[in-house]
Amino acid sequence: DSGVTQTPKHLITATGQRVTLRCSPRSGDLSVYWYQQSLDQGLQFLIHYYNGEERAKGNILERFSAQQFPDLHSELNLSSLELGDSALYFCASSPSMGDNSPLHFGNGTRLTVT
Amino acid sequence: DAKTTQPPSMDCAEGRAANLPCNHSTISGNEYVYWYRQIHSQGPQYIIHGLKNNETNEMASLIITEDRKSSTLILPHATLRDTAVYYCIVRVARQGAQKLVFGQGTRLTINP
Known about the structure:
By secondary structure, chain A is mainly β.
């Protein structure tokens, strides 16, 4: 158990809808990262938050947004969903930023868009 | 971050040592080598990381060559549960450069 909790585990929704994925980092970790893994793309970095502030963006679509709250949990919002958004979404956390601490990943949310 | 090269797949017999190679010839002095694995569709699991010295923990050993251009992850007594995709990642430790960039990894199959 990595200590990173993601909910829900599975989500099935229709095209055009909006969903919110939630991540609770390990106790004491200030950094949260979101990754997307689809069958043909591998693990793709989406976005990084540190202590409530956005720190880095990867290949995140404009239809997607994220935030990190004062209690350090994070939410990834996906809107106007398309079939191609079907994927596993992983959250990871680490204690800080700028050191060599490893990231620890949750077990993901499997999103299916029909 | 430096690019890594790993074989796409490997096989190993149960109970034997699994040695997974990784080339990172463009690694720079402040870049660490990290190893993760992903079992089926679970979240990537951290295994070990190092800068230039060999490292060992309860899961594995990491051997980094003296010139740091390559490394080997060693699972000393592989079990069927070690079947997974193993990722070798090079990552610099500096302000703002925190994300891990995953490649295609090595699919390791442990055979009974």
